Structures are given as structure tokens and as C-alpha cells.
Amino acid sequence: MTHTVTTETGAAAGGGRPRRLHIAGAALPGPGGALRTANIAVEDGRIAEVSDAGPAAGAVRVDGSGLIALPGLVDLHTHLREPGREDAETVASGTRAAARGGFTAVHAMANTDPVADTAGVVEQVWRLGQEAGHCDVWPVGAVTQGIAGSRLAELGAMADSKARVRVFSDDGHCVSDALLMRRALEYVKAFDGVIAQHAQEPRLTEGAQMNEGAVSARLGLAGWPAVAEEAIIARDCLLAAHVGSRLHVCHVSTAGSVEILRWAKSRGTQVTAEVTPHHLLLTDDLVQHYDPAYKVNPPLRTAEDVHALRAGLADGTIDCVATDHAPHPVEAKESEWSYAAMGMVGLETALSVVHLTMVETGLLDWAGVAERMSAAPARIGRLATQGRPLEPGEPANLTLYDPAPRGRVDPRSFASKSRNTPYLGIELPGRVVATLLRGRPTVLDGKLV
Amino acid sequence: MLHLISAADLSHSDAVLILDTAEELAQVGDRSVKKLPTLRGRTVVNLFFEDSTRTRISFEAAAKRLSADVLNFAVKGSSVSKGESLKDTALTLEAMGADGVVIRHNASGAPYRLAEWVRGSVINAGDGTHEHPTQALLDAFTMRRRLGRLADLRVTIVGDVLHSRVARSNVALLHTLGAQVTLVAPPTLLPVAVETWPCEVAYDLDSALPKSDVVMMLRVQRERMQAAYFPSAREYSRRYGLDAERMARLPDDAIVMHPGPMNRGMEIAAEVADSPRSTIVEQVANGVSVRMAVLYLLLGGSEPALGGGER
């Protein structure tokens, strides 16, 4: 099915900035898995009307038939690599990839060079996002200076800056010092911040190369035990409860972590968690020929873990999906496994993988996808204008997704600068047809505007 | 078969063919002219990212006895940040027309990566803590020569299994060949999920020895002590070292093996290493025969191993 975009006079819509846009006959997810077909009128960056009414004069018309309308996706965990590693990704290329994937906001992780640990760096990243204009970029601030894990960065200055930082993370490294973690959790309460922890006990993972289990034993690769993640999550949940702070757990990867989170939430601890698309689909047996495309931190785990993560995401123990989009240049992966960089690109495949693993399995309906990929991450990041319901008066951040087509992943088609996908040649469902950022199309007909 | 990277890839008949071929080729070592024309005009590269003089000269002797041209390519300090990448090295070898590449590398799985970038055969001469398949083949060859069979042979492998490529290859190959393997080690030096391997596992050496036809002692590196795998060299030696008193618990015709290099006084006492039960020197000689067989079978094509009419 092709989705034509025309103005009412019949002329094809160019780039431009149409003030009025009319999405005809898209399916809006409702409660109980219901899909309601309606027309969405967008005017001046907001949703003007959701109804059966026809288009207003002069509006750009988007054929929404067969498409699912979702609130614009929000990623809590994106590595845009700028400043410092512009060979892997830039704010511009990474946000183009985000728009292609249906995202209208991303949180740019702090492990850049220089590290995003000062107001100056976070404002620079924020400004680059504004200039690129493909989606909102909300910088994540480092918890500790230089992500070195010894002294707190100026968290307040980053919170008060133009970048308005609310999420703080040393991602890539664990804030392993228990006292420092406690202080960070306490300190960010002053500005409603959250510490997003990369849960990895460093001593238990020295030299670790892959999930510790039957596969690592056979391959002779140093194991990365589940307990190294779970021990930190348990500790941090207890700390967050003790000081009454918000904790967010990055990229949960084990069944045990899900159990601990379920327990902590049952006690009323303010903890939220994310899971990556790749941990919802891929398992550690893929490592068998040492292809670094599958090397990632945290590592791919077992099928049992994958099932527990899906169940946790379905029942809300895990609040959201976050991509952990981690671009790397070709040479960083074209090496021996032990020397290869960890990470996978994910922005442009995230929604399809969630579709495959959660929707096609019946674990989540489309309203659930909207919650887990848009509303929840926006709440955790304290973004007021993202993750909102598709209702009149709300900002027109939305994604039109065609669930029907299936296609093999071709990294050459990526907008990202990097190609390090684990899904090469794998068939995935669906396609993002259009993305609107405050009413302005960033993607139309699957192509960047 | 194009490559030999993992002993687990060998079927029973592959493994027996290699051992039988090695047996034939071993005769060459007894001749005054220790050379066959079989691989004349073929190029074998010894690509060593890790120092291992004994393995390199074993492969070199094997290739030369088959008349192959041998190039030794030693790469020091092979961290990815310095010097040439494995891929660029592979492309260089490819340009030189290597028919076979014997690779020793400190990173597990490096031979699989290499095999993606070269057309010739890749022979794993030890990769990280993964495998060392020709070592397992020469060990099986030695056992079969000494004890006459492999089926139902009771083989006890003792020591640092966690970091041992020799142990991994031996468990896989001996299982394929019908032997019964028992691993004996302190629990810290056994991999998690070792129970998924086709072997038995025990912590007590003394009770395993009377039920062993073969006991294979693995090298234990002293630096493991710093990483808290065991409290001291003395305690390790006391619990898992093979001394004369322990050796006396073995059945009469049992043999003692070690892949070398040995830590005399640590995992094996000098009097054990030098006893008639010890096959350590034979293992070195057998290594050349087995590696000749592997090179011949992977690179030799259609010619009979010993040349026409010569049997």
C-alpha cells in the first residue's frame, strides 16, 4: 500500500511547514485493544480535532488508511556520540534515524567526549538538536565528573541550564560506589531528577565478554553473570526506598532483575525500568561464531530471560522500551570478539521489534505500545509535551505506522551513520510511514522530510 | 572439511581418519630422510599472535616434512589499538596466497573471524580460552598408542579447566571418540554450566585417580592466585597436584599426560613428570605426526599421504 500525501488541490506536498494537516482514516488505539478509525486534524502544531469530519480548506492530506496512529515515540536511552565521535554518529544523523524510527524525542546519553557533565556540554547537545530539528533532543547529564565514578558532576547546573536536564546517568559505567549513588539519588530530588543506573557490578564483570552460562563456557569467553546486574538493582532499589528518591534502571536484561523490580514496586519504591528491543528478541547462542554484531552491554541473555523481560514489559514491571542505540564505525566491530566495541544501533528497528515480540505475540496491544514507547518514557524524563494522548489540544507529536508490510533489514537504508545492527537480513514487520513533530512532518511516505 | 577450528566440529569418522593418517605419517619420522613431497608448492603460514615456540615449531616441522613452504608471521602486542587489525593481516596473507593459515591467538574465536577473510584453510593452534584442537588430537593419538583404544577409556583431566583451551578440545574430542571424561578442579576453576558438558565433574582428585586410565594434568598459571581462584600455590598443589604418592593410586597401566609447559612442583611433581607412566615427551613427538595429518587432510587434495606405491 502506498500512502499518498496531497494537498486538497491535489498537488503533492513538498517539505515546507504546512500549518494544517489532515490525516484521513487512521486507526487510533483505545482501551481493550480496540482500534478506532478517525480523522486527525492538525493545526498550528496541535491536534485540532479527532473526528469523522472532513479536511479543512488548504490542509495537507495524509492518507491514514491501514495505518496505526501512535503518539510520537520517546527514547530514554540514545547515544548520539556528538561531541567526540562524529565518525560514528552526529546529533543530526542520529535524530534523522530517530525520526525514521517514529521518535519525536530522544534522550542523548552523557558518555560523549567531552562527557556531558557540565551545563556547557548539555546545552551544546541541546542546541545541536534544536538546529537539526528532526526530533527533540534532551541531554542526559553525567552523574559523576567524567563518568569516573568518584565525584558528583554539577547536577544542579545541568538541571537549571537551557537543556533542562532531568535524567542523569553514567551509562556505560555503573555508579558502583554505594555512598555516591545514595548522594546522587538524594541530591536530584531538589529538581525532580532521576538517576538512570547502568547496573553492572564492576568486580563481577572484570574482562566480561558475554552472558555467563552454557554458551560462554563452551566458547571460552569470560562470563558476565546475571548476578552482577541484579545485585546492583537490588541495592539501588533499597537505597531509593531509603532516601525516597526516583531510580530508573537502564536496559534490564535478566529474569532475576525483573523479579527484583516486581518486588521493589510492590513495596512502593519509586523505581522505573527500561528494556531494549534487542533484549526482547535476541539470545546469547547467537554469539557462537564470535560475530561482534551481537556484542552489547548488557550482554544478550538466554531465552528464559527474554521470556521474563517480555512478561515484565507486558505487566508493567518494566515501564518502557528504550533503544540503547549505540552506533559504532565499521572497524570497531570488524575485529576479534574480545576487542570489538559493545553496542547496536536500534532507533530505526525499535518499533518493528516491539511489534514482533510484544504485539504479534499478543502480550501488548497498540495502546500498550503507546504507553511503553511514548507516555511512560516521557513521564520518566519529565517531558510535558511528549507522550501525550492523541486528543484535541495536545501537541501534534505523532507517528503513523503501517503494520502490514514485512521486510528484511537492510542497514544500507539506515539514516544512522553506523550500520552495526544485529538484525541484518532478518525479516521484521511494519514500517513507519510518517512522523510529526509539533505538527511538522519529519518523515512522510517513510522518507525524511 | 576446509578448516579445523573446534574439535567439536569433528565427527567420529573425521577424528579416526586423522588419527589413522597420523599413524601412517609417523613412520616418516623414523626414516633417515624425514620428508614427503605431498604439499610441495603449497604455502602454510604460521600466524602467531601469542608466543608459543613449541606449538609453532611443531607445526613448522609438520609442514616442512610434507614439503610445504612455511612462512612464520609473529605479531607481538596484538591489541586492537596498536598496529594492524586481524582483518588487514588476513588480507595480507591472502595476497601472499596462503593455502593454510595456522593461527595462535590470545582472543577466543579469532580463527572464526580469520576464516571470514581468507580463502585458505584455517587451523586453530590455540585461541584464548576456547580451543586447541590439534592438542586434543595428539593427546587422543598418544592415548590410543599407549593403551590401544579410546572407547570407554576413563580420562581424568585435572586443573584450570575454566581457562583451558586444551580441556575444552579434549572434552569434545574424547566424547566423540567414546571415552569417559571426568574433570577434577577446585570449583572456582570450573566454568559455570560445566554440567552441560558431556563429562563428569568432581572436586576430589584422590577418589578419581583409582578410576582413571589416563590422568591429564593442566598447567595452572600462578597469576590465577592473585585473582582469588585459590588461596596459595601450596594449597593448590596439596589438593590438586600429582605427586608420587597420589600417582600410586592409579591403576597399574594408567598413564600421566601434560600438554606442557609444566610447572614442576605445582600441578605435577618432577618424579611424576619423569616417571615411565609419563607420556609428556611422546606427546611432543606425536604432535608433529598429528599436525602432518591435519595439514595433509586439509591441504593435500587427492594424493596419497605417503606417495604412490610406498606403503
UniProtKB/TrEMBL annotation, chain A:
Pathway where this protein functions: Pyrimidine metabolism; UMP biosynthesis via de novo pathway; (S)-dihydroorotate from bicarbonate: step 3/3
GO molecular function, one term: allantoinase activity
Cellular component terms per the entry's GO annotation: cytoplasm
Ranges of residues in domain Dihydroorotase catalytic: 68-255
Cofactor(s) it depends on: Zn(2+)
Record's keyword terms, sorted: Hydrolase, Metal-binding, Pyrimidine biosynthesis, Zinc
EC number: 3.5.2.3
Family stated for the protein in its record: Belongs to the metallo-dependent hydrolases superfamily. DHOase family. Class I DHOase subfamily.
Name of the featured protein: Dihydroorotase
UniProt lineage: Bacteria, Bacillati, Actinomycetota, Actinomycetes, Streptosporangiales
From TrEMBL, chain B:
InterPro entries per the UniProt record, alphabetical: Asp/Orn_carbamoyltranf_P-bd (IPR006132), Asp/Orn_carbamoylTrfase (IPR006130), Asp/Orn_carbamoylTrfase_sf (IPR036901), Asp_carbamoyltransf (IPR002082), Asp_carbamoyltransf_Asp/Orn-bd (IPR006131)
Pfam family, any one: OTCace_N
GO cellular component, as recorded: cytosol
Segments forming domain Aspartate/ornithine carbamoyltransferase carbamoyl-P binding: 3-144
Enzyme Commission number, as recorded: 2.1.3.2
Annotated positions binding carbamoyl phosphate: 54-55, 104, 132, 135, 260-261
Keyword Transferase: yes
Enzyme category, top tier: transferase
Keywords, alphabetical: Pyrimidine biosynthesis, Transferase
Annotated Aspartate/ornithine carbamoyltransferase Asp/Orn-binding domain residues: 152-298
Binding positions for L-aspartate per the UniProt entry: 82, 165, 219
Superkingdom of the source species: Bacteria
Gene Ontology terms for molecular function: amino acid binding; aspartate carbamoyltransferase activity
Metabolic or biological pathway: Pyrimidine metabolism; UMP biosynthesis via de novo pathway; (S)-dihydroorotate from bicarbonate: step 2/3
Function: Catalyzes the condensation of carbamoyl phosphate and aspartate to form carbamoyl aspartate and inorganic phosphate, the committed step in the de novo pyrimidine nucleotide biosynthesis pathway.
Family recorded in the similarity comment: Belongs to the aspartate/ornithine carbamoyltransferase superfamily. ATCase family.
Quaternary structure (record): Heterododecamer (2C3:3R2) of six catalytic PyrB chains organized as two trimers (C3), and six regulatory PyrI chains organized as three dimers (R2).
Record-linked HAMAP family: Asp_carb_tr (MF_00001)
Protein name listed in UniProt: Aspartate carbamoyltransferase
Organism (species): Allonocardiopsis opalescens
Gene name in the database record: pyrB
